[in-house]
Write a structure and sequence with these properties.
Blueprint lengths: L1 E5 L10 E6 L9 H6 L4 H7 L9 E8 L2 E9 L10 H17 L4 E5 L10 H16 L9 H4 L5 E5 L5 H26 L7 H10 L7 E5 L1 H6 L3 H6 L8 E7 L8 E6 L1 E5 L19 H16 L4 E11 L11 E3 L5 E3 L7 H16 L3 E6 L3 H7 L4 E5 L2 H14 L3 E3 L17 E2 L9 H10 L7 E5 L22 H9 L2
Parallel strand pairs: 1-6, 2-4, 2-5, 5-6, 9-11, 9-14, 10-11, 13-17, 14-18, 15-16
Antiparallel strand pairs: 3-4, 7-8, 8-11, 12-13, 15-18
Helix pairs in contact: 3-4, 4-6, 6-10, 10-15, 11-14, 13-15
Amino acid sequence: MIKFITSDKFLDQAANAYAVFVEQDFKFDQLSEISKKFFPALKDALKQREFTGKAHSNLVLTSADDSKLIYLIFIGLGKVNKTMCDLESYRRALASVIRIAQSYKIEKLAIQLPDSKLFNAEVEEFSKETAVISLMSEYDFDDFKTDEEKKKKSDINLIICSDKKNIAQIKKGIEIGEFIGQCVNKARYWCDMPPAHKYPKILADYAKSLEKETDLKVTVFDSEQISKMGMGGIEGVCKGSEQKPRLVVMEHKAANKNAKKVVLVGKGVTFDSGGLSLKPANAMETMKDDMAGAAVVTAAMRIISKLKLNINVIGITPLVENMPSGSATRPGDILKFYNGKTAEVKNTDAEGRLILADALSYAVKHYKPDAIIDFATLTGACSYALGPFYCGLMTKHDDLAEKLKRASLTTGERVWSLPLDDDYKKAVRSEIADICNIGNERYRAGAITAAFFLQNFVDDVPWVHLDIAGTAYGVPDIAYYRNGATAFGVRLIVDALICW
């Protein structure tokens, strides 16, 4: 999408549209050259349309240049206070530009990059964000549309203009950002894919294919190996499906032998019917995205390998389909996990924690990590508690929480801590097994009690649980998302590991 980076004058570009970012209550002197070249009555037009640069505001004007139609796109940044949080205002403003350009079928769009210092960001970082958000804003899942007119999107040639002294840094940032954006969009693509097109084997094969383009070592365990290893959670959830489970392990090794070791675990339920504890029909409509955690971890591992981060990172994704049938796990059954613990299954729709239990146990036994972070569309309770703009963060390790909160501020993928207090621990007790897969109703707090179930499988390893149920799909009012998948968590964890 980003075709050209130049230090030549912004208004000298052979473009169909020119996008200008302005702070709230800007001085018109900043726009005098644009007015002189394209729109002499610009000052009056801005006043008449009451455009002052407020956040989330935009104005599109038309003019002509040598008999060619020209669009002038003005985007408000709001009040810029030079804090990292304001970088999100830029992301959303940039996304608005891309969406406007698409709607007007603009082929060549010139953008004058704002000064990165306004957002307390380095030039390279700012450029990276520009590329990531440009690609995320352009994404649209249309593989199954047959109407070519509805499917057709404007192929935007984006021209980035900036000072000559920053060009080298901008090019480096853009290159990294484009790759990250592509990986994020690939994760979104898999989440948006219909469930019949992404069975566990298909996702496992995709992960395995990453060995060809990365330094990742990828191991895929099939259903027989999963059964022999005693992974009763993964095996139990998949019993009702004709599709066999997979367990994928991706390893990135740092150049430094003494580097820290972090394990990322992602829930991968390719479709969740609820099993015998069948969901209502409308609740199944978006359950193709119940493998968002696995998509996030796979995309993150691809980026981590590309950036050659000096930290050992292992990505683990248990992949299953949860379906009802005569062979399905029943409410009342007891499953035995990889670490030897047992759980009473009272509700087969609380399946994500069952497959995560085996994956977490595997991570602890085989890698002895310095930290584990899991990503899971785990509970409706978290979605209702925090809505679509924050994911739930649960941990007893404040230092890990702080790393993710800092990354949250820089990436705009926001997290909110929920209390992992031992008063909730008794909620997952069982009278006939070690634990129960759903919390006792008296304790309510379904997101927290689910985390306490998972805690049984991490031993004393520092661990963070991220419940992305509300943020993974259908997030409204953020221009760089569309109606479908968001791949929430990819940018968050990559940024956190870069700064680890």
